[in-house]
Structures are given as C-alpha cells and as structure tokens.
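Field: COMPLEX_INPUT
Field: COMPONENT_COUNT = two
Field: RESIDUE_TOTAL = 753
Field: MODE = joint
Values follow.
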Amino acid sequence: MTWFASPADAATRLREAGYLTDDATALTAYLAGALEKPLLVEGPAGVGKTELAKAVARATGAELVRLQCYEGLDEARALYEWNYKKQLLRIQASSGRGSRQDSWSETHDDIFTEEFLLTRPLLSAIRREEPTVLLVDEVDKTDIEVEGLLLEVLSDFQVTIPELGTVTATRRPFVVLTSNASRELSEAVKRRCLFLHLDYPDAERERAIVTSQVPGLDDKVAAQLVDVVVRLRELELKKAPSIAESVDWARTLIALQIGDLDEATVARTLGVVLKHASDQRRAVKELKLATA
Amino acid sequence: MSLLDTHIGFVEALRAAGLSVSLAEGLDAISALEQVSWHDRETVRAAYAATLVKRQPQRVTFDAVFDIYYPRLVGDGVARERDGDDGDAPGPDAGPRDTGPDLERFREALAEALVSGDQQALQDLAAEAVARFGAMPGRGPGLSSWSAYTSLQRVSPAELVDRLVQGLLADGLDAERAQRTAGRRIGDFTRMVEGDARRRIAEEKGPEHVAGVTVRPTIDRLDFTAARRSDLEEMRREVYPLARRLAARLTKEQHARRRGPLDVRRTVRASIATGGVPLTTHHRPRRPHRTELVVLCDVSGSVANFAQFTLMLVFALREAFSGVRAFTFVDDVAEVSDVFRPGADVAEVMESLAASMSQAAMFGRTNYGRALTRFAEEHPDAIGPRSSLLVLGDGRSNYSDLALPVLADLAGRARHAWWLNPEHPRHWGTGDSAADQYGAIVPMVECRNLAQLGEFVHEIA
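Field: COMPLEX_OUTPUT
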C-alpha cells in the first residue's frame, strides 16, 4: 500500500488526524512512505516528534508499535527472546516418553519454534501483516550496541534468529525514530534514514495548534498566549517553552476560567511553561512583569 | 548545465563545505526528487534537505549552497520587468540607473514593504537593490561583479528603522516589540540582499567559485575570533546543549568503566541461590576519581570571545569535576569562581563576568609574566596534587617578561596542565606570541571553535 498519495494529501490527512504540519514536515512524511525509508525526527523536547508518528498511524489507519528506548535496552527487550520457562516445562513434560535419544532430539527441535518465541516491538512490527507504524522513541538514549541491531532492521526490514532463520517483513512498516540529539547517532543509522528537524512553529501555526488542541479557548487569549510564548523563546533560557507547554498553559487558563491573559496572570501561571527557577526570574525581569 | 550536472555539482559543493554526503544519499535524493513535483522550489529544497542533511547545525550551510545552485531567479528577473513596465523610466542602458530619484523611489517602496512585512515584496526588492545599486561593471563580459556591500551602502536600510518603528507602532505594537521586529526585518532584508548578490556572482562565475569562497562554515567549526555578533549569540545558544551532550557522554563512559574488582563475599552469597554455582559475579564499585580544575583565563580584548566560551563550557561541565576555580587576568589576577553559582542565569553570569574583567587589568596591557607571578603569590593554595591547571590565552604578552619558571613551578605542582590557544598553530611564536616558549613547559592545544573545545573537554574530564 502507499501511505500517502502526495505531500498535499499527507498534510490534509495528518490535519484530519489532529496534527498540523508545515510544508517540509508533510513532504518528508510523504517521502518516508513513498521511498519506504525510516524517518529520523530530531528537535527540542515537546515539539511533537512522537505525536507525528502517532498522527501517521491515526491518519492511515495503521497500528502503532512503540519501542521506548532507554539506557541498558538490549536485544531481548527490543527484538525477541525465548520463553525459557515454557521451554523448561516442555522439556520436563516430554522426559517420560520414548527412548532417551529420540525424545531429546525431538524436544530440541520442539522448543525452538514459534510457540516459544516472545516477540518484542521490532520483531512484531516486521511480522505484522497489517499496516504498521513503528515508533522507535528517544533512540539517542540507547547504547551504541542497540544501534547495530537497528541497522539490520532499518535497512532490510529483516531480523535473523539463529534457530529459526531470517524473518523478512512481508509489508514494510512506516518507521519513525525520534531523538533529542543528546548523543550523536552513528553515521550508519543516519545514512539509512530521512532526516527531519522539527522546531518551534511560527506564531500563526502555533496559534492554530493551540486552538485545535484546546477547544473553547478564546481567540484573543490564544493570541496573547502565543505572543508571550514566542517572546519567552527569544530569551536565553535553559529550557524554552515547547508546543506541549503552550497547550498545557492554554488548558490551565481554561481550568482557571481566565478570559484575559494580563501581566499578573502571566506571572502567576508562569510555572506551567517555565520549569527552572532561574528561567522564571529571568522571564519576570525581561518581560517586566508585575509579580503577584 | 544539465540537471544531473547541477545535482552532482551541488553534492560536491556540500562535501566541500563540510557536510558528509555519501553516494547512497545522493541517490536517495534523486529518488526522492522523482517522487515530488518540480514546480515549487521549496519542495525541491525540502526533498534535498530530508535526504542530505543529517545534522541541524549543517542546515544554514546547506541553505546557502542550495541558493547558489538552485537560484530563485535568473538575471534581473522582476527588476528588469519593472523597468519595462515603467514607460518613462530610463532603460537599463540609458545612463546611470542609481540616480537620486530612483533611489528615493526605491527607498519609499522598501519602507512600505518593511512595514507590511511582505516577504515576497522584500525578496523582489532585494533583487532589485543588487541589480540597480550593486553592479560593479567589469572590463569585459563575464568580469563584472555584484556587491551586496555597495547596494546596502546606497540603500542603507538601517536609516529606515525609525520610520519602520513608527509604522509598527501605528499597527498597534508596543514600543519594545516594534523595535525588535524592526531590527529583525531589516536584518532579514540585509541577508536577502547578500544572498541575491551571491546568486548574481554565481551566475557570472559559476557556482563552484562562489560556494568555495562565500559559504561560511557551520557554527561549531566557526573560529571564535572570526565570529560576528549574530554568530556569537548563536554560539552561546550552542554552548549549553554542547555541555549537556558532553556530560551525557561522560557519565555513560564512566558507567561503562565502572566495574571494579570482584567482590568475593557478595558473589559467594549470591551463588547460594544457584546451588553454589557463581552465575552472576558482583563487583565493588570503582572509587570515583575526580579532579579539581583550576582555570586561568586571559580576558584581554584580543581573546575575549574565546574566553567567554571556554569559561562557560567549563562551568557548564562542573558536575564532571569535583571543584572548579576560575581566575581571569590581563596583567593582574582576579578570582571569578563565585560568579558561576549553580543554576545561575547565563546572561547574568556574562554581565557580572564582564564587570569582574575590569579588575583583572591594572595597566590594561596583557602581561602573562606579571599575571602568573601574581597568581602564584596571591593564591598559593589553589594548585595542589589533585588539581588540573588549564591556561586559556594566545600567549601574546607584549614582549614583557614571561615568568617561565613560575609557570613551570605551577605546572609541576598540578596533576595535569594544559594550555588552550585560540590561534592557528602557524601563528604560534610569531610576533609577540610566546606560545612556543610556554608550549615547551605546558602542552599547548589548538582550540579555535566549539568542536575543538568539545573534543578537548572530553579528553580531560
């Protein structure tokens, strides 16, 4: 199947799935589907990298298989492992029957079959017959060794299991890798992927995102909110507010039933968007807010 | 030039500019381009970017090279068309085109476009500015050139700031924002003019020539000393993520090396669960080995940029060292350790650092000899067997006494000592540089950009 018919189609269907893209994002998403290449998405936290994968799944009616990466993730967690408890049970159950020699070779062939294989996200995504979006989240958190593992999966969409042979994808999944660039990924992984850098959106698109995510938000408040957030991002902060945080802020204002975002309100609710004490002090000083 | 030639030239130019574009990626780009329509230039750009750029800091370089190889328009484009439309305006060959009334009319149009912020109009005006005011006629065909500098001198968009601010205020912006918006729009326009001049030159002399000469290196390869003001801001924004990346890498590596000697007691006890077979071995944690860092930093005018970045990075990496003390000097020494409180605000730190720098100068001329001597006298306790000494500076001491024995003594007392020099090694020892003499005592490392700085800090921590 083709994932998207054209870049414009990608933009429309992602928007219907609740994800507003810019032109470059829609084009790259389309290309990732058309070329059947994995898509590496980088950018600051909270700009919608993971959300993009979810939106692709929603827009195309595919199932999302997610591999959350962390330090210490190994093959057994990412790819597959043998259900050794069940294997043990099988061996014990068969030990009574037949001559010892026969029973051993039988059992040996027996316990390395599908029945005892526990598939983990990567293998599941490859073996699935239905359309699948594979999300490899925060790939920069893994150890270098896991990257080697990903190479085989990402370039040929196949996995080699010594006892079973090579499992090749019948239907290539749409792969999205996300990264905060806290570690430089190896050239080999990058070469196999299309690259997309998601950044903070411009004010207009951000306002559209906030209003679409938070229904019931007054247009005027949305404009004021985005205006403040854009100014905050211009300051030299440790952690600039992300889209996710502007949406949180909008929800906060709804919850507090605030109809006008004046300086006092900004100062009072600044904690929703800025998570460092020094950032908050700096914001108050630079925006010349009257502290409540 | 055929499309394939352009593509290959483009990829070659990217490689020359420091992006590693493999053959496979070039092929990917072509298959990506087959999938999209060619009518929109931004689509072509995005398709190339998705396949060829693999690191965000490279994007600026990529865009510059792209603009040269896939120009927005050819020749005069809009500017010439407009001449044709205008019945009574002189044609391109009917005498000088950048006469007073034309300039007035142009500035009028520019001011209008700036106030409305119409990107398309600004882009057209930038092309027109270069065509009208930036031409440097050559001696023959193909020898003429175009200058962004001359165009900007004639048009001088900066003089329009006040008018622009007034216009924005009328639109309902508050004063501070109007000022900022005005600055940004004029900066954008300046960049457009520079880009258009590059495009015109590329047309005359071939894109290879321009790509080699005018494309700036990516921000982490840019020399501290060659950085412009806007570059410095961008670099400062890079320092914090750089420190975070380095810190993450350091902890990971320490983690990998953490397995200490075998803990027999725990291993034996754990083996009881598996019938006395020691399946898992337990190890004693390795003793954390941390160094104290003492930074001596030259803050005189010539190396001020370099000093800023080095100090900021070292302090951002505080966690990797058990303690950090910093001293700045010109000809006297002042301690600045207390400026860098944990969790302090970057901008504030830079301000107070600038204030404390003035204390480091008694006579205002760099004097390494006196600074080193004063340091040894006033802070004899700073350097011990557990501390690493880091000297930052270009070693240019105005031909004064170098106090080599003092440095030798300091280096001898410290566990390690390094000297970071922001100059290219070929300048070491030339003029009043004592880099080679100091380098004989303390290993001297070239550190001209953020990438080299990152590598060095990784080495020592």
